[in-house]
């Protein structure tokens, strides 16, 4: 009897636990429901290289999980899935599929016949393409697409699809809201956590092929021999998944690590130091990707410390990396200490003149907007303005300015908005930011998109279940910047939660409006940079006492008794002139423009009549209130979806929405209280007064807010 009880208990422990904690991301591979047929019977893979082994393992894992049967790698049977390249697989070579459109990293998936047997082939020119094809094939099943007559060709439109980790060597993550860093620097290179492999699997599944391991506010120790060995261990783990490692390089490292007196990029000793450093790194990591650099920005050292230009700095590093095939991603997020000019204009002003001066292995990495990852920004005017320089897009995946990990904001919709914006480069319509980034406008082959990661040690990786969608959407849009964020949300929701249409449709709708909702309750009508000091958590529109004018929210909203908004027209900072005339025209006229950008570009009287017929003052209050009440709608919607979601993840999301509802009201009340103290106008009829006094909101302090 006792033996029987023990056996039953052991069996129960071995059974898959129903509860889900989000660790599996969109790669859950739970059995499909009856009625959806997976024809696959076996996997045929002859490849012996690490990416092909990883591809076969992933396919085995995915197919076995999804079909609920053991699907082995081995014998060729009817409906086998054959994977490989023409050189690794005799079967693929025999079938000789047309791989011309698959390029270096793409793939084809095709149902066909081999010796009169029905088979599915996943083929590519290179091993990594096979792995990407496997993930695509699994996605078809995960999203319940028909598998009977497949004929898919896909290849990435952008070459470098890179995560930027703002992770520090002490384990903290700048702007990280998902726990500490996943890099266990102390125990590397010896201890290689399984989580590193799962990280690589997740990234490869969306086509991410690079990762910058350390913060752009970097520490020269990352370039020391001990840390190069640690980085090499991570590179070894990621290599089978097609992911290269990069490091943020501190510009003054020749001084701090090398003991030199200067980091002047034109100094021969400095140049020699970087060359030797590059040689040392490549000896340990032959496929090292290169350097990301934040220079002369927010106190970081850079070439301007020596009266040299950004191009001088970037080209020195490029020269050191070039013999090894490495590249430099030089960030354009700069605003100078001396210049009192509109911060919006500074990156463009510094970089535009350098167009054509960068070495051919340098990309200039530009944030999506000219200020700083605000809930809404017009696209950065540098896109389309530097035809001779490959411009790399930098998105922020971590939600520094959008409510950390407790507010639900699907950023796929934000990324798509930025990518679809028309730069009218060369005066031509249709030269969107996406096309500039893809290199299609100016014929660049070196192209890239970066995303500031939202990954940490939290069990669910991203701090919240819905923040996983932002990592996912980033990867998908980096692969194809012209993809639809709605379709991506649809895939994600199916893979992460459920394929039930009664779940998918409302969730996707909710995701698609969620970022607008955040913009409404934080920064309506083009307002920006109103977050509280340092941590950027919660409202601080009253802040006016910081050292630099352009760190203060009052600098950005410029509200007084008469009106509000930043005049970036000719009458003001004239930042509008940095856009091509056709792009500028879209924002030039308050009467006709998209009012979601109104106060970004115009200083407008409170009594101005907006399109709704209300006064601007009333519209500000109404939009803040709408944002707050839309969160209540999201919360109710999620509550109605309880039957479709496992208990733990349902509760986790519900709790976050409760927090978001409370904080959206806080944003609304604090902002309305503050702006009313300036506008001195009554609230529109039917809108109740803020719950607490302005003094109360101003007194709130958050000394331990994360990510700061
Ligand atoms: C800002 C962040 C800051 C970063 C900086 C950057 O607040 O932590 O260091 O951007 O991108 O958004 O360099």
Automatic annotation (TrEMBL):
Q: Any keyword Signal?
A: yes
Does the record carry Ion transport as a key word?
Answer: no
| Signal peptide residues on this chain, from the entry's feature table | 1-19
Give the transmembrane ranges: none
Q: Which GO molecular function entries does the Swiss-Prot or TrEMBL record give?
A: alpha-glucuronidase activity; xylan alpha-1,2-glucuronosidase activity
Its domain of life reads Bacteria
- Which residue intervals define the domain Glycosyl hydrolase family 67 C-terminal in the entry? 463-687
The enzyme class is hydrolase
Please write the reaction equations for the catalytic activity of this protein: Hydrolysis of (1->2)-alpha-D-(4-O-methyl)glucuronosyl links in the main chain of hardwood xylans
Would you tell me the protein name for this molecule?
Answer: Xylan alpha-1,2-glucuronidase
Q: Which organism does this sequence originate in? A: Asticcacaulis endophyticus
Q: What is the lineage of its organism?
A: Bacteria, Pseudomonadati, Pseudomonadota, Alphaproteobacteria, Caulobacterales
């Amino acid at each position: 009897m006792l033996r029987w009880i023990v056996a039953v208990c052991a069996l129960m422990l071995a059974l898959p636990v129903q509860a889900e904690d989000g660790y599996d991301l969109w790669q859950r591979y739970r059995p499909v429901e009856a009625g959806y047929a997976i024809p696959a019977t076996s996997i045929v893979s002859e490849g012996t290289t690490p990416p092909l082994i990883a591809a076969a393992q992933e396919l085995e894992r995915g197919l076995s999980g999804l079909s609920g049967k053991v699907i082995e790698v081995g014998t060729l049977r009817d409906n086998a899935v054959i994977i490989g390249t023409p050189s690794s697989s005799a079967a693929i070579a025999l079938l000789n599929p047309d791989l011309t459109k698959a390029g270096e990293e793409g793939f084809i998936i095709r149902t066909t016949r081999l010796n009169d047997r029905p088979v599915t082939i996943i083929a590519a020119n290179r091993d990594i393409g096979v792995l990407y094809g496997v993930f695509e094939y699994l996605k078809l099943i995960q999203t319940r697409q028909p598998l009977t007559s497949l004929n898919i060709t896909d290849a990435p439109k952008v070459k470098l699809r890179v995560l930027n980790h703002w992770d520090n060597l002490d384990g903290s993550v700048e702007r990280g809201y998902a726990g500490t860093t996943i890099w266990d620097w102390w125990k590397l290179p010896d201890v290689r956590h399984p989580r590193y492999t799962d990280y690589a699997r997740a990234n490869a599944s969306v086509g991410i092929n690079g990762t910058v391991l350390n913060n752009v506010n970097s520490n020269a120790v990352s370039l020391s021999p001990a840390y190069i060995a640690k980085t090499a261990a991570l590179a070894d783990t990621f290599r089978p998944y097609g992911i290269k490692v990069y490091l943020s390089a501190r510009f003054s490292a020749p001084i701090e690590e090398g003991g030199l007196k200067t980091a002047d990029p034109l100094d021969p000793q400095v140049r020699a130091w970087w060359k030797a450093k590059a040689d040392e790194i490549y000896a340990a990591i032959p496929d090292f990707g290169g350097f990301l650099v934040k220079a002369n920005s927010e106190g970081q050292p850079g070439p301007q410390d020596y009266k040299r230009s950004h191009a001088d700095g970037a080209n020195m590093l490029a020269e050191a990396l070039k013999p090894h095939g490495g590249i430099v991603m030089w960030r354009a997020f700069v605003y100078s200490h001396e210049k009192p000019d509109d911060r919006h204009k500074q990156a463009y002003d510094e970089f535009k003149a350098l167009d054509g001066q960068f070495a051919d292995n340098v990309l200039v990495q530009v944030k999506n907007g000219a200020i700083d990852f605000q809930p809404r920004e017009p696209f950065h005017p540098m896109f389309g303005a530097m035809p001779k320089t490959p411009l790399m897009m930098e998105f922020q995946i971590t939600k520094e300015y959008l409510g950390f990990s407790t507010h639900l904001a699907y950023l796929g919709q934000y990324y798509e908005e930025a990518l679809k914006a028309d730069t009218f480069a060369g005066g031509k319509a249709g030269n969107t930011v996406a096309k500039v980034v893809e290199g299609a406008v100016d014929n660049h082959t070196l192209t890239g998109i970066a995303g500031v990661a939202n990954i940490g040690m939290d069990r669910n990786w991203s701090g919240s279940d819905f923040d996983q969608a932002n990592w996912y959407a980033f990867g998908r849009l980096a692969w194809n910047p012209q993809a639809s964020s709605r379709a991506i949300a649809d895939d994600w929701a199916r893979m992460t939660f459920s394929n039930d249409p009664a779940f998918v449709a409302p969730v996707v709708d909710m995701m698609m409006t969620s970022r607008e909702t955040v913009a409404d309750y934080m920064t309506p009508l083009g307002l920006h940079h109103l977050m509280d000091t340092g941590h950027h958590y919660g409202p601080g529109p009253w802040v006016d006492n910081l050292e630099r004018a352009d760190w203060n929210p009052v600098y950005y909203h410029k509200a007084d008794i008469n009106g509000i908004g930043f005049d970036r027209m000719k009458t003001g900072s004239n930042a509008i002139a940095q856009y091509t005339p056709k792009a500028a025209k879209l924002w030039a006229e308050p009467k006709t423009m998209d009012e979601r950008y109104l106060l970004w570009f115009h200083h407008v009287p409170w009594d101005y009549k907006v399109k709704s017929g209300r006064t601007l003052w009333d519209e500000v209050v109404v939009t803040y209130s709408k944002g707050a009440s839309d969160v209540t709608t999201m919360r109710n919607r999620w509550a109605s979806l309880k039957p479709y979601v496992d208990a733990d993840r349902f509760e986790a999301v519900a709790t976050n929405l409760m927090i978001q509802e409370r904080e959206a009201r806080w944003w609304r009340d604090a902002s309305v209280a503050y702006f009313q103290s300036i506008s001195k106008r009554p609230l529109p009829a039917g809108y109740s007064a803020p719950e607490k006094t302005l003094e109360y909101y101003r007194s709130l302090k958050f000394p331990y807010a994360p990510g700061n």
